[in-house]
Amino acid sequence: MAVRTQQKERTRQAIAAAARELVVGNAEVTMPAVAARAGVSEATAYRYYPDLVSLLRETVDDVWPAPAEMVPLEGVTDLGERVARVATALCERTLAHEVAVRAVVSSSVARTGERRPAHRFALIEHALATMPASTQRTELATRLAVVISAESLFTLLDLCGLDPDAAVAALRGCAVAVVAGSG
C-alpha cells in the first residue's frame, strides 16, 4: 500500500474514532468537534465524510448493540410486554447518547432525503418476532415506528416538559396502547 494511501486511511480512521468517542461520551457531536478531536481541519473531515449524518451512519453502528443483546426477550410471550421492553430500551439508549442522537436528527431533518440510522426498526422487528408475517404485523410495525422513536421521546421531553423517567413511561405506555388497539 502506498504511503499516501496509508495516510488517507489513518486520517479516515482518526475521524471515525473521534466521532465514536464523542458519541460514547455523550459529548457535542458536530463536524467541527469531530475534526478537533481527530486533530484534522474541518475541511479535511468534510473531504472524508460529506455531512454529519453520513459520518455517524458509517462510524457508530458498532456502538449500537444487536437487538437481542440490547433487549433479551427469550421466554417473554406477551406482545405488549415485548414492545414495552423494546420501547424502554430505545429510550434509555437514546438518553444515554442524547447529544449525538439530537445532532443526527437535526442534521437529517435539515437535509431532506438524507437517510439516518434507524435502529428502532430492528428493535420493533425483534419485539414482533413472535407474530407471524402478515399485513397486520406490518401495520403494527409501522404504527410502533411512530411511537418508539427518538423524535417521540424528544417531544415528550421538550414540548410536554416531562422529566426523563416520566417521558420513558409515557412513551412505553403509548407503545403498549398501540399493541392493545391493534388486536
Automatic annotation (TrEMBL):
Residues 30-49 bind DNA. Keywords: DNA-binding. Coiled coil: none annotated. One of its GO terms (molecular function) is DNA binding. Residues 9-67 form the HTH tetR-type domain. InterPro entries: Homeodomain-like_sf (IPR009057), HTH_TetR (IPR001647). PROSITE patterns: HTH_TETR_2 (PS50977). It holds the Pfam family TetR_N. The keyword DNA-binding applies. It comes from the Bacteria. This is AcrR family transcriptional regulator.
